[in-house]
Amino acid sequence: MTAQQFWMLGINLLWHPLVLIESLILATVYFWLVVGSGRHYFAHSQPVTKQQWLSFLAGIGVFYLAFGSPIDYLANHLLFSAYMLQNILEMIVMTPLFLSSIPAWVIEPVAARVVNKPFYQKVSKPFVRALAFNVVFVAFHLPPVFNQTLLHPWLHVVEHFVFFLLAIFLWMPILSPTALIARLRPAAQVVYIFFAGNLLMPLIILLLFTQEPFYRFYLQVPRVFSIPILADQQLGLIIMLVGMLVPFFSLGVYAYSRYDNALLYR
Q1: Digit-coded pLDDT (tens) for 214-257
Q2: What are the angstrom distances between the C-alpha of 131 and each of 87, 170, 186, 262?
Q3: 207 vs 124, 150, 212, 230, 235, CA distance in Å?
Q4: Which has the closest alpha carbon to 175: 91, 110, 118?
């Protein structure tokens, strides 16, 4: 498939007007809930900050970019690299932006009912969070499972929904909007980020240097933009490696600087 053929697929396939409508609906509900009359349903509501609603708008923009732009068609049908880019946008960019936009008084009525449950206290430990995220992510990318998700659109939707929930679960110890789910201290954040960010690295590096296509699905689809299948696989793994390494490393440096300053000025 040439670039010209790809761009001729049309607006419905490449730009998903329905996803745009969904984005606008989500934005309307958010502003009604945290700025408009919806605040009256929460006893302890307070005005949201400019940074919060800007984070939400940025998150909505990333949501549409990942699932409403041509990235989504490429990810679902043609390119492993686009699929990996979509995952990074969803889990490493969009989810933290959404978490940063949620006022504490929105999430606390739900959190108060969950945090004291014995099951939650067991699974919410930082080690379990990081391990669960990486184990489930790897499981979804085993060839038999991965090929099925691309062949069945409904399963692909389920996969992204699971990734979104897992990403929330992963980011909570760092970006929790409520004291009911306490953030880790800066020193613990450094360890947590290092652990979570490095669990996938051996697998990514191993696949990066393989000389055979890992997923049979891409053997039966047209090659778009003249990208060879093995180069596409390697590009996808590089996107995953850089997309996780850079944000996690940056957060680790930031958390360490806070920890270092806390020791210096204590």
Answers
A1: 888 888 888 888 889 999 998 998 898 888 877 777 777 776 67
A2: 18, 9, 20, 29
A3: 30, 19, 9, 11, 11
A4: 91
pLDDT tens figures, 94-123: 999 999 999 999 898 888 888 888 888 888
pTM for the structure as a whole: 0.89
Which residue reads 């309307």 in tokens? 28
Query: Who contacts 85 (Cβ-Cβ below 8 Å, separation ≥6)?
Result: 71, 75, 236, 239, 243
The half-sphere exposure of 92 on its side-chain side, counting CA atoms within 13 A, is: 22
Q: How far is CA 170 from CA 18, 43, 187, 201, in A?
A: 29, 29, 17, 17
Q: How far apart are CA 104 and CA 176, in angstroms?
A: 9
- Which residue, chain included where needed, has tokens 């110890």? 173
Contact 177/102 with Cβ under 8 angstroms? yes
- Tell which phi-psi region holds residue 226, choosing left (phi > 0), alpha (psi between -120 and 50) or beta: left
